[in-house]
Design a protein that fits this description.
The complex is a heterodimer of chains A (253) and B (732). Chain A is α/β, with parallel strands linked by helices and 253 residues long. Chain A has helices spanning 45-52, 82-88, 103-113, 119-132, 136-139, 152-164, 182-195, 208-214, 232-237, 242-248, and strands at 5-16, 19-30, 34-38, 62-70, 73-74, 89-92, 170-174, 200-204, 217-222, 225-231. In chain A, the strands form two sheets. In chain A, strands 6-7-8-3-9-10 form a six-stranded mixed sheet, with helices on both faces. A four-stranded antiparallel sheet of chain A has the order 2-1-4-5, with helices on one face. Chain B has 732 residues and is an all-alpha fold. Chain B folds into three domains: 16-53 and 493-729, MetI-like fold (Orthogonal Bundle); 64-303 and 462-487, MetI-like fold, CATH 1.10.3720; 325-452, no CATH class. Chain B is 75% helix and 1% strand. In chain B, the strands form two sheets. In chain B, strands 1-2 form a two-stranded antiparallel ribbon. In chain B, strands 3-4 form a two-stranded antiparallel sheet. The longest helix of chain B has 38 residues, at 16-53. The chains are: A alpha/beta (253), B mainly alpha (732). At the A-B interface, α2, α3, α4 and α6 of A face α7, α8, α12 and α16 of B.
Chain lengths: 253, 732
Amino acid sequence: MIDTNVMDIDKFNLWYGEKQALIEVSMNVRKNKVTALIGPSGCGKSTLIRCMNRMNDLVDGCRVEGRMSFNGQDIYDKSTDVMLLRKKIGMIFQKPNPFPMSVRDNITYGPKIHGVTKPDELDEIVERSLRQAALWDEVHDRLEHSALSLSGGQQQRLCIARTLSINPEVILMDEPTSALDPIATSKIEDLAGELQKDYTVVIVTHNMQQAARISDYTGFMYIGRMIEFDRTDKVFSKPSDELTERYITGRFG
Amino acid sequence: MMSDGGSIKKVKKFHHDTVMKYILMAVASVTVLIIFFIILFILGNGIGAVKEVGIWNFLTGFTWKPSIGSYGAMPLITGTILVTVGAILIALPLGLGSAIFISEIAPKRIRNILKPVCEIFAGIPSVVYGFFGLIVLVPLLRNLFPDHLLFGTSWLAGSIILGIMALPTIVSVSEDAMRAVPKSYREASMAMGATRWETTRKVVVPAAISGIAAATILGIGRAIGETMAVMMVTGNSAIIPAPLWNFFEMLRTITATLALEMPDVVSGSTHYSALFLLALVLMLMVLAINFIAKMIIKRSKRKFGDPTVPATSSKKMRAIASAVKNTPRTIWGLMLISVFMMTFILSAVIQSDMLVSFICGIIVAELFLIFTIGILLVPTGDERIPGKLQDTSKRSYMISRYSSKLIRSAVLTGAFVFVWMMASLFADTFVSVLTAFVFLAAMIAVIPLAKRLGSGIREKIAHISLTGVVAVVVLVLIVLIVDIVSKGLPALSFDFIFGYPTDGGLGGGIFPAIVGTIQLVVGTMMIAFPLGIVSGIYLAEYAKNTRSTKIIREAIDILNGTPSVVFGLFGMAALVIFLGVGYALIAGCITLAVMVLPVIIRTTEEAVLAVPKELREASLALGASKWETTMKVVVPAAFGGVVTGLILSLGRAAGETAPILFTAVVVFRSSISFSLADPVMALPYHLYFLASEVPGSTTMQYGTALVLLLLVLFMFAMASVVRYKYNKNIKW
């Protein structure tokens, strides 16, 4: 089966000031699949994922080179509307970061930014997003409560719902479960699997079991380089690179 | 010690820890006594007027004329409120705009310049602002509005100067609040494709709203208690402007009244006691403002930070809301029309101006509408909500649906009334009403148009206007500094610094004033530092969170917000007259010390409390006593913060005029005296005296202003150096 590529990354380099954080990274993101990025701390996987919707623009002294494209269009081209790009490529962060507003206002924030004003339409979006994020049953009767009153796992699912509210094509998840307990983690993992039907998911994770469990493709990164990128079953069963093998078998460093 | 058999029994009965605790407590209680004495003293002296004039006559009387025994404080209270409102109307948009610019838009380099500049301007003595207002702003206004301003001294001038003075506080505090908004909120918003401006407007500002409210209130507090600057530029006539919004009128504030009348008053007379009562009213106003600030902060915390249920409405409210909701729409419409008609007829009878009455009718009807919709938002538990969301909590659902409309109509009404009021000062009723309508129509037309613009364009417009705001603010500040420096420098000479004034202030130098100011500052330091630091440490480390500690904190907060002129009043009544000290250095020092005491206590306490608990635990876990921990770990760690607070408080003492006005200063001294019982000259008072009483001494005024400015700025520079040094070494 041939999957279509949503994103293509080709010989991508990134510098923070003098320090090069990504070196000649190449990979692609297949449509409606879960792609995992693994690797030790500081290997550049978070940096890479933050390049995909240009969140690294916010970092002073950040410079990129090489090609990264979304549906064939260069993400870093001058003509790219960054706001539109981020609308289409949503992001979930390491720590749940709901706004200090009500649950509802968290969800309607994005649609309102992008021009939805009709209350009925917003109501539908709230319900749909929360259902998709498997949170509706838990919060439907307290939509007006502060989002900060939810538990950590609920907050993270709220953040996912918030991202879903603007119908992105790709959802980037930057270690979305690193701040959560095992039960909340498994809920997020299930969710990532569910989401793959309608969305494309890229997930950065520290946890190799997590990558093995939920992803279709896995990229292993090490000190700024993409060491290996392939189907997850292949990466975990017969990795072609020795570094990868040592990392996934825990014989590292 | 290591091998005494493992006993953990007490060896000594009185550990030094206990002894130190009681010593600290004793010093702290002296402070507390002083604080309560001041409050009681002012209360006690004000009572006389209540008996003789009557509280009702005092508060509602329209004539303040002590010479004929008429003590109606209404014009003074109105004057204070009006000048403050004007100042906030000027300072809030400029301040908030600048804060947003500094925190969200400005590159790091510019932020690093603007932030300290802001703090410098917060430290400029009020008499310097007053001087600038008198010599630059007042003539400028007179030339701008020759038909409206005969002299230039006016409410407008007062509000502009107060606005400039409140600006640094508002900018600095709200910028802090916005910078404290976690980066993750911004990232989350940007990651959804929001522009920087949308993120600022919809996430950062709402998240920082309690800080911004606190900043505004602090600004109001500063404006309301201001004496010298206001006194110099408002014209000081105790009348209520007609119409109430006529900002070209002169007016007189409570603070100015205290400063103007206190020196001539006979102790124990009705006038004397009436002034104390005025001071009480002023303190109560400040208290009320601080109380509101606290409520706002608490509310917004409950709303967002604290994971509790939203507040539920009372039964009564629910009953009313239910009644409103069950009323059919036609009755509603009829009520609306009748409200309009009633206002219209009533207003027409009183004012006999049809157009004005019509407008009044519309405004009241509008307010009625907003109010009823507000009531509709109260949950009654029986709402039918359309669509699928039957389960949602209903009140907030309604609010989220209607609040933006409510706010919009309230803002539009407000804007309409404002434009009308402003226009009516320049044109007749018809033209002004027309202007307001044109303005309203333009707003209504422009708002939807603006919404249709792309978010990128809106962001550009926002950034350009914010940059414009900052440019205006910076320009004003540059004009102020350049004016004083360029005209003050030529006055500086050896003779000016080291000579005595001649020709009643027209010539000579200001040596005795410089020495006097230094004497006052040193004296203040010696009294306030030990008391303040010890009390601060005691409150932070030892005081338990009991009811009495709470009362002490409240009392400190009350004094902290008390306008400086009230301290002057206290100093004069208690020290100069009651204790018979007369105008003397010691009286001035004590008054200033009492004034800065709450600031010192508070900053010390905060610096000490900012030391992380882990540090204390580490020391205590090693077997150190509380006293040892405090002295060897906590205080050294808090040292930078404490010293910064101390220097800042001294800078304030050096620049203050009102507290020494009737306790320590004289116009002229022919020699330097170091006796505590002699009066002194002082720079701020000298500047005030020259500017208001010695025409033709412009050069001397600028010279004095520059010297005062340099002295105060030197202290602030020292404070920043200390803070910078310690912030670099200590980080947590």
